[in-house]
Every structure is written in C-alpha cells, then in structure tokens.
C-alpha cells in the first residue's frame, strides 16, 4: 500500500469515528431526553473533527507503522485524543451558553481511544496472526528461558519481517519456570525433553540462548538437539557479548570449537600490562594462525609499537589491515615487516632497528607429514630460524624471548617434533649466558589453525563426503587459538629464564568423534556423509603425550600452566648438525636429530628418577 493510499484511508477512518462517536456518546448518556441541544452537538462534532486532525498531525499519527505499534504509539493516540476532546469541550462551552456536556465528552473520549486505538492494533494483530503466519516461518524452540532467551524471543516476535524464525516454545532446566509463559511462549519442558517437544511441535529450528554455559553443558544440549531434524544455532559467547563485539541477537552456528571449549582462564591483567603496555613487541610468523591471534590479543594491552614479522606477504598484509582498521583511533604503531627467519642478517637488522622489548617467536613449519618429506627445510626454519631470531635478541638486549613450541616436542617421533625440541634446546642454552630471558611454551593442536583437521573435514563434507580419518583410535588434545594465545602471553609474564612452560590441554578427543560431531553440526547424518579410515600418515603417533610426572614440576605456576623439568643442553651437537646440514641425506639427518634428542631425553629421565 502506498503512503498516499494509506494516509487517505486512515484520515477517512478517523473522520468517520470522530464524527459519529459524539452522537453515540450523547445518546448513551442522555437517552430519550431533550436535555441536549442538537446544534451544540453538531458544532462539537465539527470542532472534534478539526482538532483531532490537527493533533494527529502534531503527534504524527498518520506517519507511524502500525504493524509494529506498541506502548509509545498508544500514548501518542491518547495524547492526541485527550487534547482534541479538551479543545472541543472549550468550543462547546463557549458556543452553548456556557453549558458543557461533560459526561458525554468523557464517553466520547473513551470511544475515540477504543475505536481509533483499536483500529490500529487490530491491523497489527491481523498481520502477526494471519499474514505473517501464512508465510513459511520456521517453528523455533529456544533453549534457555533466562534473560538472553527472553531477549531472543522478544526480538524474533518484534522483527518478523526480517527473520524467518517463529518462536513457539522454550525449554529450561529451572523447575520454577516450567509451565510458565514468556511473551506468550510457553516453557514446555527441560533439556532432556527437546526431542519429544521438537516432534510434538514440529520444530524446524533450535536456538541455544545460554551465553555462559559451563564446560560440558553445551555437549549435553547438542546431544539432545542432534536427535531432532532441526537446525541448531546459538547466541555468541559471553566474552563477545561483554566486549561489545556482537549483540545477543547475532545468532551463529554451533561450531566444533564451541563443543571443545573450556572454562575461560582469568588472565593476570596487571602483570601482562606491565611488560606489554607502552613497549615494543615483535611477533614472528605474525601472519600465521597462532602469530596473528597473538597480535590480536597483544593489541588489547596497548603496546607502544607492534612488529608484524612474517615471510608471507599476503598474510602479513591481512593482519596489518585488520589491526589498523580495528585500532585506528589509538596511538599504537603497527609495523608490517616482511622477513624470513632463515635470513640471519634480516633478523639482526630488524631487531637492531626497532629494539623490541619482547619477542614472540611463532614462525615455524608445523605440518607433521610434510616435514617428514622435507627434513632439511624443517631444520632450516624451525632450528636455524629460531637460532637466528634468538641470537639477535641476545645481541641487542631484548628483555624476553618467548618460543611458541609444541607438545610434539615431547619424546618426539617425527621431524616436526624433533626440530621443535632442538629449537627449545637452542634457547635453553642461550638463556644460560644471556641477559635476555628465554622461555618456551608448549601446547598441542589448535582448532582452526592452518593444516588442522577441521577445515579439511568441512571441505570434505561440502563435497558430499566421505570424511577421512586416519584411524578409529587416533586421539589428540585440542585447544582454541584464542585460549592458546592468551596462555602464551600469560606464560611470558611468569618467565624467569630457561623454563619450558606446558599448557594444560584438557581431556583428549578422538578424531573420529570430532568428525561425527562436525557431520551432525553441518546438518547431515553419517548415512549421508560417511567416514573412511585412511591409515596413519608418516610421522604420526596414535596418541599424543603430555609430560609425564617426572618431566613436569608438581603444581600449576598459574591456572592451566605448568613448568617442565630441564637438563643442561649440549648445544655443540646442534651446531654440528647445522654445519653438516647440506652434507647429509634425509635419512642421515633424521638419525642425527633423533640421537641428540634421545641423549637429552635419557638425561631427563635419569634426573626425574
């Protein structure tokens, strides 16, 4: 309906109501009497018509979208009608020998509110109940009848022209909310009742509206939701809501990261700020998964300058643009720097030019099977690259150097893990003779990193399957990239020099269970997207190991952070390995590296016993 047509119809409707209401009111108040003067009533009707349209214009009654009428619109109607009745009463009093039919005017006021207000709200009810309901709305169940759930319900009901979701039921484990209603939507049961409620109410969509779910609770809810055919979404995490990144109405798909997520660690903000705020921080591998997240986390502590060092031009460009856009109103100086850690001269040049206070060394080759096929490149990047950056830090007096290591450095059986252990040994040796505090931080697989199984599984599901898993018993420890990055930064504050910090990785997860969850979350079944077992790849372990009791000091030094035991390192063996790098073939290189690590492991075991 055009504005002109709509305006004309509303004016015509109001004119009929206003013109006739005073006659009806007069007859109701003074039935079958000759008290009333017809001339006075006619004059009052004309005055009412004029004043009503005048005040309707003042309060913009003809410009409002009545399909979304609420208390504000009702107040505008009441004000316009009240003022028009008062004005008409004054005219009646002055033109009717100072006689006022007050009771008739009061009834007229009531009729105006009922008929004019009702005509507006009838349209909203008709639209919500019939026009909207006739569209293909998805019947939606909301899990959680708390503040967040109520907000979701209200927004879905008030914005039905912008969403395809129609809330029809709540579920909540709170006994006090059972059989209650929120915005006319009933609470029909508990989480365990989701499957039967979904079947009974023909639910197409489920929204999990509990932003502060404790560890493991989301898995229980998803298990129940997976027994239905409904699509499942959830509101953002509590930290995203608190920081203002998103609002509660921004629904998102449930990701594997949400299912594996753990209780958030409270960081020691003061200690981190003390050595980051206002200082120059350098991050190598800044364009990578861990490096870029380290940069994001560090920016929240307002460093004076942050150096984004990386070999990949495009990845450095991406994180540089992201940070500059987000922090364009700050005085933080963001420096994108292209440089390969294998280029010793370039690393010394960068550290000399910018004099960083802290270096986070995240640059590394991490893909296990690829490094099995390319051991020389693994040594050049992971060992020699680390040595170059670490010695530059030592030469120019950097305060702290934090090496991002891997749990695969624990009793390594592959090239990647071995080179990461050698990198740890390089900085341990440097720490004994340097003013710089050198530390390493070990953790396991991070969800969403480049080369991780999650992106691979998603691509396989998009292609229609099958999802390939190496072995049904293959088990890994997982951590989200933000959590790992936060703990790396926190570990840096604890550094006294020479430590190997070990992050608590939580409970191990079977890769096949990860694949099954991802298939279900993608809206498929295992019958539609099969799982195939391809066999263990070169260099892989069936089970990743965390440090045993004799390899870690008892007790956490900080929440989810432990300190591993170390022994004195014979760095001459590593130097000899580097000198002979181009003179040995791949097999001989592997043997030499394993010999160094085995010797060190034997000493460590002896020390522990």
TrEMBL record:
InterPro entries: NAD(P)-bd_dom_sf (IPR036291), Polysac_CapD-like (IPR003869), Polysaccharide_Synthase-Rel (IPR051203). Keywords: Membrane, Transmembrane, Transmembrane helix. Residues 281-563 form the Polysaccharide biosynthesis protein CapD-like domain. It comes from the Bacteria. The chain crosses the membrane at residues 7-29, 41-62, 74-94, 100-118. Belongs to the polysaccharide synthase family. This is NDP-sugar epimerase, includes UDP-GlcNAc-inverting 4,6-dehydratase FlaA1 and capsular polysaccharide biosynthesis protein EpsC. It comes from Lentibacillus halodurans. The lineage of its organism: Bacteria, Bacillati, Bacillota, Bacilli, Bacillales.
